[in-house]
Amino acid sequence: MFNNAVISFLQLWLATLAFAAPIADDISATSAKPWHYGTGGGIIGFIVLVLDILVWIEVLQSNRPVSHKILWCLVVFLFPIVGMLVYYLFSNRQAHMRSGGYEPVP
Fold first, then answer.
1. Secretion signal: which residues (predicted)?
2. Mean pLDDT of the chain
3. d(Cα 28, Cα 38) in Å, to the nearest integer?
4. Where are the domains positioned within the chain?
5. Rounded-to-integer distance, Cα 103 and Cα 106, Å
6. Torsions phi, psi of 22, nearest 5?
């Protein structure tokens, strides 16, 4: 079970990197503006990728049901910027955070 989850995660990660790879053409290859969000993404694209990975980690570590985890991961994967914003605004993160320690014994 764990191996299948790891393999699936690595395949999705590889697909994300493949889609994030720059598609060089004459205009974007000669452009000196690294702050654009075009085909290559630049610095802003890298920041969005890092924030999306942080959202994925937070979702997968939460105590949500598996179906909700899959749904949130798909939303963030398919709509990187909008999905990340929707997650941070509407996901009720505090209610689904794992407790950091053991529960006290009565």
1. 1-20
2. 74
3. 8
4. 37-94
5. 9
6. -70, 140
